[in-house]
Amino acid sequence: MGEAIGAFERGLVTTSRWDKFVAGDHSALTAREKRGLSVFMQRGCITCHAGPQAGGMSFQKVGAVIPWPNQKDQGRAEITHFPPDSMVFKVPSLKNIAETAPYFHDGSTASLEVAIKLMGYHQLGIVLRDDEINAIADCMRSMTGDPDPAYIAVPQLPPG
Predict the structure, then answer these.
(1) What is the CATH number for 6?
(2) Could you tell me which residues are beta bridge partners of residue 75?
């Protein structure tokens, strides 16, 4: 069953304008999305959300600079029982992030812009301006691809 689910999920991989940009098509992103990428890099978000998948390859402490308000789920420490793993979670890929609310391990926000604001504050110790937050959100939305409609269509079952 796990293999079947894995095969299905691999088929949900989408190609976005972000992927085209990373592959060298610099016209794939709008000027505003490129500005968002620039802010994303300048402010330090790229430290954890790196590579073509914009994350998904490492574990980091949430609340690295300013403690995360909800400390109920202690992350990896609940599995490893190693105190330095407290509040350490897998850094998510930002691919399709605009479609995957609610955000964070605790599902504490459904707004992409609020999530960006919280990350700036808790991870980087900075207060992002609204124009920076909106530009980063625009860039992140460029990472959303469209799944093949036939792949996710309700199957036609045989009569029975």
Answers:
(1) 1.10.760.10
(2) 88
